[in-house]
């Protein structure tokens, strides 16, 4: 009977060891599944973040391009104003310049 008890105790220990191994394997599998899920979620978040950054960048490029068009128009207007000012000034003093040139060309000095 003692050998039966000993045999039964060994069987019980083996069963407990197998149960413990099954529990450990299940925990490992759950851990791997959680890690895989966390990795997938992190990759999804990174992709969303990159997409948001790209949208922000494209918006800034679009905004600055729009400003560039306004700057071109402003520069064209300023250029036209300066050209008009120069033409006005040239017309105002052209008679004096012509008279001065004629004076120097026609005067003879010894």
From TrEMBL:
Residues 10-96 form a coiled coil. It holds the Pfam family V-ATPase_G. It comes from Stylosanthes scabra. NCBIfam families: V_ATP_synt_G (TIGR01147). Keywords: Coiled coil, Hydrogen ion transport, Ion transport, Transport. V-ATPase is a heteromultimeric enzyme made up of two complexes: the ATP-hydrolytic V1 complex and the proton translocation V0 complex. Catalytic subunit of the peripheral V1 complex of vacuolar ATPase (V-ATPase). V-ATPase is responsible for acidifying a variety of intracellular compartments in eukaryotic cells. This is V-type proton ATPase subunit G. PANTHER family: V-TYPE PROTON ATPASE SUBUNIT G (PTHR12713:SF11), VACUOLAR ATP SYNTHASE SUBUNIT G (PTHR12713). Belongs to the V-ATPase G subunit family. InterPro entries: V-ATPase_G (IPR005124).
């Amino acid at each position: 009977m003692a050998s039966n008890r000993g045999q039964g105790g060994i069987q019980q220990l083996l069963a407990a060891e197998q149960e413990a191994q099954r529990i450990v394997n299940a925990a490992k599998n759950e851990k791997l599944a959680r890690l895989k899920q966390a990795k997938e979620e992190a990759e999804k978040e990174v992709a969303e973040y990159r997409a948001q950054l790209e949208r922000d960048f494209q918006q800034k490029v679009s905004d600055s391009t729009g400003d560039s068009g306004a700057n071109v128009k402003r520069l064209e207007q300023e250029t036209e104003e300066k050209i008009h000012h120069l033409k006005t000034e040239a017309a105002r003093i052209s008679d004096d310049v012509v008279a001065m040139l004629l004076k120097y060309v026609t005067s003879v000095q010894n």
